[in-house]
């Protein structure tokens, strides 16, 4: 067996183990509540050792909040890939499409994950931290597209904050709307922003 094949199999096995651990955290949290799940519970459910868990995740919070890892491309990276000629909001919609497709492809899992978030106040500080990190990255991508200074100008940070809030509200609404496509809810939020948030 070639070294390339061996490496590929090893990486796939690592990814499968990571996915099994993340799935166990989510399933047990949905059944018992996140605060009542221990790492030992998770490793028993996934049939791996305690040490193996920490080879993949720093904590059960990370397994729930970042099941695919911190290195996965996000909205900022997707936005940077869009045609520079696109209007900013159109570029944002195009960049979001990839993210939304990921949610829609595994809608049941993501709805369950958001339900755990909503039921677990203790996760809020970490959610805020991750959101703030994403916001900074998005502001950098907006600044690059608009020729503004991410540190000196208000615009990039303001756009990033508004987009982050609108997307968060849309996603949390979607998880309670089983018959509604996520893209439709996000588009509704972006349309409202583009129109200047008119009073209904």
From TrEMBL:
Domain HTH tetR-type: 15-75
Family matches, as InterPro entries: DNA-bd_HTH_TetR-type_CS, Homeodomain-like_sf, HTH-type_TetR-like_transc_reg, HTH_TetR, MftR_C
Keyword Protein biosynthesis: no
Keywords attached to this entry: DNA-binding, Transcription, Transcription regulation
Keyword DNA-binding: yes
Annotated DNA-binding residue span(s): 38-57
Entries under Pfam families matching the protein: TetR_C_14 (PF17754), TetR_N (PF00440)
Protein name: TetR family transcriptional regulator
